[in-house]
Each structure stands twice: as structure tokens, then as C-alpha cells.
Specification:
Layout (H helix, E strand, L loop, with lengths): L2 H12 L9 H8 L12 E3 L4 H13 L4 E4 L15 E4 L6 E4 L4 E5 L4 H9 L3 E2 L10 H6 L8 H4 L6 E7 L5 E5 L4 H7 L8 E8 L1 E2 L3 E9 L3 H14 L5 E10 L2 E10 L10 H4 L5 E2 L2 E3 L1 H7 L9 E9 L4 H17 L5 E8 L25 E9 L5 H22 L17 H5 L3 H11 L14
Parallel strand pairs: 1-3, 2-3
Antiparallel strand pairs: 4-5, 5-9, 6-10, 7-8, 7-9, 11-13, 11-14, 11-15, 12-13, 12-17, 16-18, 17-18
Helix pairs in contact: 4-10, 7-14, 11-12
Length: about 450
């Protein structure tokens, strides 16, 4: 046990806080991230089991100005955002779930991942608005950006469906907040990052859930024009809020592919809705009627788990043929030039949403700052295996995003806000939060005057 760990342990005892110091096995699990490049070796990890224990830990760390990290699912690809070389607070033991059928709500511990939330609600024929990828943590998904779902067209972002939050303030005070209890802090926490304290519990609105229809179709690069036409037709004509779609132009180990995730929130879609995609010759397809949990876990989002990686993003207001061609060109250009860097995959994801998606639920949230704008977030993802390539691949990620941003601006389709959950570590706060930034900073000054949360990672206000 290091001196720092020893001092922390005895400070915990003095404050009558019960802590679990991780064993060797638990330590490795606590550190683990989706991208190994985002992982750091912490001095130690602690696993609090209640808001009271979180408060005790935060008081100790704050009083000693000890750097710390807060980790839920570990899906943030920015190094230092949910990792640290200091003390890592692993939220894994805050994993309770309490469903209330009468109020159509569920109380969820922030150490849970969305897979487990979906699984526990499945036999009750209800679900929540959460992540589309497997293994994503509940808290970071909502706190760090707001959260897009397959069901966002129907019900809004995940943050729009949060009814109440239990948060440990930087002072150590445990507080319950909602739209009626400290509405400014409630606004800030939903999408404004971990600048305001540590969230330990959320009350979420639940919605009816039947079997769904969907899955992933993988096409060869040779049908790019046909897939693009199908995508453009879909975005131009679709008004059905039960739909969800992601289209990825990618290169996997130098082989160009197109991946389309189709979703319909019912056992089968209207026959014509996705017919143009289904009629294109594909490499593989697992589209079928299935449970919502199966839909989440069937996607290829964990294909590159455990390697190095980074996200970046732009946002656009329309899906156009020139933009799709530009995305494909960026994919091919960098794939051809980066094989010696250990590039495993690069992908550019189109995620179209209906304008009505931004008008559902409680819309007073940190992100997006302008809900009158129809934002389509683009996920730019690079995965590689060589640790020595980190800096150069980060630079590639910035360059390709800048190129597409300029292209979208020239086309008159650039949206005003970048999605924080996809944003690279040096993204300007104004580019994500726009006119909401001033309000966020005011809340930060009020609840954290000593900047205790400045000891942890993330986008800092």
C-alpha cells in the first residue's frame, strides 16, 4: 500500500466512511476502459456503496487537493476524462434499480450500464431512453452530453427523460434536484459534464416496450452510391418517430465497408420504410424481430473494444449527397495512408434525427443549446493498435473533423453545436454549449466555489 493510499485509508476511518479498496482483480476491472488509450494507472481505486460514502471520499480528496477520476462504464475515449493517475472513484457498487409501475419511473444507481437497466426492465415490458451501444455507463452518457437513443425521435434525448437526480455536491452535501428543486443545477448536470458534483442516482421516465425490429447490415464499398441514395431518400421522406438509423462509412483493416443499423420500435416496420436498404446486396445482415436488449447488444459497437481509439465530431443540419461523398472520401484517404500506424478502423457515422426529437420531454438541458435547430451529430471514430501512434492519430482526428466542418459550412448545413459525448478532448466549450455556457459557468461558481471538481477530468468550465 502506497503512502498516499495509507493516508486516504486512515482519513476515511476518521470520517467513519466505509470504503472498499479494490483487490488486484478489482483494480484492473476498475481501471478498464473501452479504449485502452483512455486508461491510466490510478494510485488506488475506491468503490463507494452509497451517496454518504461518496460524500466521505469527496471530502477527503477535496481537503487534500488530491487529483481523482470518476468512472462508470468507461466509454469515454478521452484520456483523463474518466481515468486518473490519482484516486479513481469506481461507481460500480452503486448499481441498484427500483421500478415504480404506478408512476412509470425507475430509480437507477449511476454505477449501472444501460445493458443491465434494459435487462432488468425487459420482463416488465417497459424501457428507458438510453445508449445504443453495449457497455455504456448510465451516468456518463447523460451527464457528459445528454444522450442520443434509438428512441430519441419518439421521446427526446436521455437527459430529457430524467425526472430527478441525487448528487453529492463538492462540499459533500447530498442533494436531490429536479425541475422544481434547484432547476439551474438540474439543467447543468444534464449534459454539462462532471463540473458540479458526483451524481449517485437518477429517476428516469419509463416507456412501454414491445419487441422491436432491427439489426446491422454490412455492405461492400462498391454499393456506396446505392446506399447513399437509400439514405437520402429515407432522410427526405421519413416522418415516423418510431424509426432509428445509423449509417457508417468505414474502413476495417484497409477494407472499405458500409454499416447500416436499422431500428423500428415495433415487431415489424411498415413494408416500404426500409425496403430500399433491404434490397441492396449485402455482405451480411442480422435484421430481425428481437428484444430491445438484443438490438443494443447485436450492434458492432464493441468490435474494437480494448484497442486504442478516439472520437471526434461535427454536427450538420441536413444529410446531403455531397456531404456523404465527402465522408467517404475522408474514410478512403486516411485508410490508405495510415496502415503503417496500426490503424484498425476509421469510420464516419451519419445519425439523422427528426426535428421533433428536440422538443420532447424536459428540454431545459445544457446540451443542445439551440433546440430550434435540427442537429444531426456525426461520430468520427478512429481505432488503432500502436501506442506510438496516439499523437499522430489524434491530429488526424482533428484534421479530418476540421475538413468536414469547413465542407458543411461551405454547403450551408453546419449546425451550431457539437455533441459533447463525441467531442475530442480539446474541443472549445462554446462549440458544444453555445449560449448555455454562461449559465453553466454561473452554476459552477455557485455550487463549487473552491473548484473541487477541477481535480477531476472532463471538459472544465
Amino acid at each position: 500500500m502506497s503512502l498516499k493510499v495509507f493516508l486516504l485509508y486512515w482519513a476515511a476511518l476518521a470520517c467513519h466512511v466505509s470504503l472498499v479498496f479494490a483487490s488486484v482483480d478489482d483494480y484492473d476491472l476498475d481501471l478498464a476502459h473501452f479504449a485502452i488509450s483512455a486508461q491510466e494507472n490510478a494510485t488506488c481505486t475506491v468503490e463507494p456503496r452509497s451517496a454518504k460514502e461518496v460524500a466521505g471520499v469527496l471530502n477527503i480528496l477535496g481537503s487534500r487537493k488530491t487529483p481523482f477520476g470518476i468512472k462508470g462504464g468507461g466509454h469515454n475515449l478521452n484520456r483523463g476524462f474518466s481515468s486518473t493517475s490519482g484516486v479513481l472513484i469506481s461507481m460500480t457498487r452503486l448499481n441498484s434499480l427500483k421500478y415504480d409501475e404506478k408512476t412509470s419511473t425507475v430509480e437507477v444507481g449511476t454505477g449501472m450500464i444501460w445493458d443491465d437497466v434494459y435487462a432488468q426492465l425487459q420482463d416488465k415490458n417497459v424501457s428507458v431512453i438510453g445508449a445504443r451501444a453495449t457497455g455504456v455507463g448510465v451516468a456518463g452518457f447523460i451527464i457528459a452530453g445528454g444522450g442520443y437513443s434509438y428512441k430519441t425521435n419518439q421521446y427526446g434525448l436521455a437527459a430529457d427523460n430524467v425526472l430527478a437526480i441525487e448528487i453529492v455536491l463538492p462540499s459533500g452535501v447530498i442533494k436531490n434536484i429536479s425541475s422544481k428543486q434547484d432547476k439551474d443545477l438540474f439543467f447543468a448536470v444534464r449534459g454539462g459534464g462532471n463540473n458540479f458534483g458526483i451524481v449517485t442516482k437518477m429517476t428516469l421516465r419509463v416507456h412501454p416496450q414491445t419487441a422491436v425490429w432491427g439489426g446491422t447490415i454490412i455492405y461492400p464499398n462498391t454499393v456506396f452510391t446505392t446506399v447513399s441514395s437509400a439514405l437520402l431518400d429515407y432522410t427526405a421522406k421519413n416522418v415516423d418517430p418510431k424509426t432509428g438509423l445509423q449509417c457508417t462509412f468505414a474502413s476495417l483493416q484497409g477494407q472499405g465497408i458500409i454499416m447500416v443499423n436499422l431500428f423500428y420500435d415495433a415487431p415489424s416496420p411498415p413494408p416500404e420504410l426500409f425496403r430500399s436498404f433491404l434490397n441492396i446486396t449485402s455482405i451480411s445482415s442480422d435484421v430481425k424481430t428481437r428484444s430491445y436488449l438484443s438490438m443494443i447488444q447485436s450492434a458492432n459497437t464493441d468490435l474494437t473494444a480494448g484497442v486504442r481509439g478516439i472520437y471526434n465530431t461535427i454536427s450538420h443540419t441536413e444529410v446531403t449527397a455531397p456531404l456523404l461523398a465527402a465522408m467517404q472520401n475522408e474514410t478512403n484517404y486516411y485508410s490508405a495512408r495510415l496502415q503503417s500506424s496500426g490503424l484498425l478502423l476509421n469510420g464516419y457515422v451519419v445519425e439523422p434525427f427528426l426535428p421533433e426529437a428536440y422538443k420532447k420531454g424536459d428540454t431545459d438541458t445544457a446540451y443542445p443549446p439551440n433546440r430550434a435547430e435540427n442537429i444531426h451529430p456525426m461520430n468520427i471514430y478512429y481505432a488503432w493498435v500502436n501506442a506510438g501512434s496516439d499523437s499522430s492519430l489524434f491530429e488526424v482526428s482533428r484534421n479530418t473533423a476540421a475538413s468536414l466542418q469547413q465542407f458543411a459550412a461551405n454547403q450551408g448545413i453546419l449546425a451550431s453545436a457539437k455533441y459533447p459525448n463525441y467531442s475530442i478532448f480539446n474541443t472549445d466549450l462554446k462549440d458544444m454549449y453555445g449560449r448555455n455556457l454562461k449559465r453553466l459557468q454561473e452554476v459552477k461558481r455557485r455550487v463549487d466555489p473552491k473548484d473541487i471538481m477541477g481535480l477531476t477530468g472532463g471538459f472544465k468550465l
